[in-house]
Write a structure and sequence with these properties.
Layout: E1 15-16, E2 25-29, E3 36-41, H1 45-62, H2 67-83, H3 85-96, H4 100-120, E4 127-129, E5 136-144, E6 147-151, H5 159-171, E7 174-178, H6 185-196, E8 204-206, H7 211-220, E9 224-230, H8 233-243, E10 249-253, E11 258-262, H9 268-280, E12 290-296, H10 297-313, H11 332-347, E13 351-354, E14 369-374, H12 379-382, E15 389-395, H13 398-406, E16 410-411, E17 413-417, H14 421-430, E18 435-438, E19 453-454, E20 457-458, E21 471-479
Helix pairs in contact: 1-7, 2-4, 2-5, 2-6, 3-4, 3-6, 4-5, 9-10
The structure holds NADP nicotinamide-adenine-dinucleotide phosphate (NAP).
NADP nicotinamide-adenine-dinucleotide phosphate binds near residues 211, 255 and 256.
């Protein structure tokens, strides 16, 4: 059961702390211990449809607020989130498992998106265009798209929601949010604080329930004018198809298969720090995680050795325990995928240099693992592992590294380590990715455009561009002739 201290933040009609009599609720478990934390209401199709109508009514009034009023409400929310940062982090770690330090960081990141878009709300500007006709005046207005929906994953239960709802509300949209089944409590806690911040009822509605059914109702609704999804490419494809009949605007933040390229001229310690940060944050369960580490032949032995040493220092366990750097994986399926990637690689000649095993059969902790002598023929080269597995590939030339890095249907994030500024530009430009980290393994922040190309998605979140996805452009032509 979740510590009573956090009940105030979870004081929402959809949440109970005792098992409900009916089975119309989802049990949320502690990621580290497996204990029940709470139960959240399952929304039926009728409940989702009713919520969409409430969202529509709320948006009709909300869009009439001035941008300054909306900015102030978002700033109130931002401040409340920071004030409750520790409790929100405890809830997040309980349901998701990541170490508390990372959970605190995620809450800080969620708050930063809300602050950023509070600031951006006042910078949504139109245009006056020069006309070719003397009697005409041509105007461009930007207006909120209307009712929007978001479907979010379990790996960042707070930040993924904030990154979507902040630009939506700043633009004057309302949003219905379907969080991941394993991590709905962070979403509800954010909603509770939104209400305390003075955001009008129903501009944010959290909807838990069967993903397929809730998703279908949101996609098929004519009232919902935009869907923003973060999750797997597989589910992204399904949602895109379901949104086709209503020609819904879509933002898709999908899977990745990030390459890290370490050149002979890299600062080795900087590269190792970058690999560790990118690979092992959230136990390897991030979409921008290093999935393939390409190391040039001249430094392969040295970099591999240092990565193994650093991996051996990581501590796996309950995220609430001091010193723990690696929490549990999200479920048995996640364990099975890491195991399958290791087995496949080893069967084709890769060597396990650290870790390689699950910690115990009755939990979902997995040892941080390093594989050397990995090749493009192995599954790890093509599929996102989404776990604490660092496969180290060897390459000889820059062209070969760029070719292998781009040889994937994904295009989210890539990283390069080199001290040559000419190479930083050349390789940075040649990589077919939406984001490139140069001499760093950490690239996400509220100021920069986050998103992928190819099958990693559509649209950008955060930054000055993020709000555009929640706005429609209206052109007005005035004829002045009398
Ligand atoms: P997922 O299986 O695609 O689930 C994501 C969300 O979609 C969850 O809320 C899930 O609900 C819901 N969902 C699943 N099937 C659905 C359906 N048929 N219709 C409607 N909704 C459906 O992904 P995941 O395993 O949770 O997350 C990991 C994936 O997300 C990875 O591929 C990762 O790279 C990607 N990701 C991308 C980014 C990015 O910004 N590009 C960020 C984070 C994660 P339930 O939980 O209730 O099943």
């Amino acid at each position: 059961m979740i510590n009573q201290k956090y009940h105030a933040l979870l004081n929402h009609a959809d949440i109970t702390f005792e098992a409900p009599a009916s089975n119309a609720a989802i049990q949320v478990n502690d990621a580290a211990t497996g204990d029940a934390l709470a139960w959240v209401k399952t929304h039926t199709q009728a409940a989702v449809e009713a919520a969409i109508l409430r969202s529509q009514q709320a948006q009709a009034a909300f869009k009439k607020l001035t941008t300054l009023q909306r900015a102030d409400l978002l700033m109130n929310w931002y401040q409340l989130i920071l004030k409750n940062q520790e409790d929100l982090a405890q809830i997040l770690t309980a349901e998701q498992g990541k170490p508390l330090a990372e959970a605190r960081g995620e809450i800080g990141s969620a708050a930063s998106f809300i602050r950023w878009f509070a600031e951006q709300a006042r910078r949504v500007e139109g245009d006056i265009l020069p006309s070719a006709q003397a009697q005409q005046r041509l105007l461009v207005l930007k207006q909120p798209i209307g009712v929007t929906a978001a479907i979010t994953p379990w790996n960042f239960p707070a930040a993924m929601i904030a990154r979507k709802i902040a630009p939506a509300l700043a633009a004057g949209c309302s949003m219905l949010i379907k969080p991941a089944e394993q991590t709905p409590l962070s979403a509800y806690a954010l909603e509770v604080l939104a209400t305390q911040a003075g955001l009008p009822a129903d501009v944010m509605i959290t909807l838990s329930g069967d993903a397929v059914a809730v998703g279908k109702t949101l996609c098929e609704s004519d009232v919902v004018r935009k869907l923003s999804f973060t999750g797997s490419t597989e589910v992204g494809r399904i949602l895109m198809q379901q949104c086709a009949p209503t020609i819904k605007k879509l933002s898709l933040e999908l899977g990745g298969n990030a390459p890290v390229i370490v050149f002979d001229d890299a600062n080795i310690e900087q590269a190792v720090k970058g690999i560790m940060a990118s690979k092992f944050r959230n136990s390897g369960q991030t979409c921008v995680c290093a999935n393939r580490v390409y190391i040039q032949a001249g430094v392969y032995a040295a970099v591999s050795q240092r990565v193994i040493e650093e991996v051996n220092k990581l501590k796996t366990g309950d995220g609430r325990v001091d010193g723990v750097t690696q929490g549990p994986l999200i479920d048995e399926e996640a364990i099975a995928k890491v195991q399958a990637h290791i087995q496949d690689a080893v069967s084709q000649g890769a060597k396990v240099q650290a870790g390689g095993q699950r910690v115990a059969a009755d939990n979902t902790f997995f040892e941080p693992t390093v594989l050397t002598d990995v090749t493009q023929a192995m599954r790890v080269a093509r599929e996102e592992t989404f776990g604490p597995l660092a496969p180290l590939f060897r390459f000889e030339t820059e062209d070969e590294a760029v070719f292998m890095a781009n040889d994937t249907e994904f295009g989210l994030a890539a990283y390069i380590f080199t001290q040559s500024s000419a190479r930083q530009w050349r390789v940075g430009e040649a990589l077919e990715y939406g984001m490139v980290g140069i001499n760093t393994g950490l690239i996400s922040n509220e100021v920069s455009p986050f998103g992928g190309i190819k099958q990693s998605g559509l649209g950008r979140e955060g930054s000055q561009y993020g709000i555009e996805d929640y706005l429609e452009i209206k052109y007005m032509c005035l004829d002045l002739s009398e």
